[in-house]
Each structure stands twice: as C-alpha cells, then as structure tokens.
C-alpha cells in the first residue's frame, strides 16, 4: 500500500505500534519483575546479621521487670519488652547503628522502639537494651532491624 502524503503506511503503523508495545512491556518487566523486594536475612537469636548499617546480633527479647532504672515506664495497655543486642559499625569511622530501626513484630504489627540503655565497648560496638512497648495480649514473633538486608531474629 503506498504512503499517503503526510500519513503513514499500514506497515509503518504496525511497526510503530509494535515497538511501543515492546518498550512498554520491557518497562513493566523492569519495574515489576526485576525490582527486588527488600533483602531479608532471618536467623535465630544469638546469630549476627551483617547489614549496610553494621553487624547486629540480637540475644533475647524479654519483659522488663517493673521499676527497672534504665527503662521507661510501660504505657497503659502495653508490656515493656527489652531487646538485648550487640551492634558494631559498618566501618570504623561510621556511627553506631540507628537503634530506632529495631522493632518487635507481632501478628498485629510492629511495636517500635521506646528508648534504650546502651554503652560502647572498647572495640566501638554498642551493647545493651532497646525497649519496645508491645500491646498487652500481642504475641511477639520476631525482632527486626530495618536495614539492607532487613534483619529478622526468630523467637523460640
């Protein structure tokens, strides 16, 4: 079919349409098919996870006894829990990991950090407790640290 002045031939229209569909398909594949979700490392308590923020080990999650000096008081309707941990910098010049990235996961959601009691070790790591206000009746399933990779410590 000859081209009409100022118009496109059927073949040109098919090629242009096919190219547009191919470009759209590649874009969608790159966006949906290849974008990785956050990398996740799941380990047992006491095992370290190396992240872009540093090397973090969670040792335990325990209720905080009433009247503990370093802990904030529990909020109404919540149980104060302590995440016992050790966190070392990603590099010697870096800062200690961001403690606000810790959380206690339950079926209902994630209970965020509500304070901490830490000290720095001679090897420039932080050790101590991060406190979290967990709703009464919520059962903790794991402790998490929001970094890359995302750290999950399974609770027994």
Give me the secondary-structure category.
Answer: alpha+beta
| Biggest beta sheet attributes | 9 strands, mixed
Rg calc: 26 Å
Uncertain segments are 28-36
- SS element count, helices: 1
Strand residues, percent? 35-45%
**Terminal Cα span:** 74 Å
Overall shape: it is elongated
Mean residue pLDDT? 84
Strand-and-helix sequence, N→C?
HEEEEEEEEE
Report the count of strand segments: 9
Largest sheet: spatial strand order: 1-9-8-5-6-7-4-3-2
Percentage of helical residues?
10-25%
How does this model look, in words?
Helices cover 15% and strands 45% of the residues. It contains 1 helix and 9 strands; from the N terminus they run αβββββββββ. Strands 1-9-8-5-6-7-4-3-2 form a 9-stranded mixed beta sheet, with no helix packed on it. It starts with 9 loop residues before the first helix and ends with a strand.
Q: How would you briefly describe this protein structure?
A:
This protein is an alpha+beta fold. It is 15% helix and 45% strand. A hairpin with a 4-residue loop joins strand 6 (109-120) and strand 7 (125-135).
């Amino acid at each position: 079919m000859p081209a009409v002045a100022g118009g496109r031939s059927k073949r040109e229209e098919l090629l242009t349409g096919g190219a547009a569909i191919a470009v759209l398909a590649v874009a969608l594949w790159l966006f949906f098919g290849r974008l990785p979700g956050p990398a996740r490392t799941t380990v047992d308590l006491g095992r370290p996870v190396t992240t872009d923020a540093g090397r973090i080990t969670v040792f335990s999650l325990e209720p905080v006894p009433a009247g503990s000096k370093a802990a904030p008081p529990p909020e109404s309707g919540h149980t104060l829990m302590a995440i016992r941990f050790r966190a070392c910098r990603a590099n010697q010049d870096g800062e200690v990991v961001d403690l606000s990235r810790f959380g206690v996961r339950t079926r209902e959601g994630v209970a965020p950090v509500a304070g901490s009691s830490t000290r720095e070790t001679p090897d420039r790591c932080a050790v101590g407790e991060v406190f979290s206000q967990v709703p009464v009746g919520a059962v903790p399933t794991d402790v998490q640290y929001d970094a890359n990779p995302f750290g999950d410590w399974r609770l027994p």
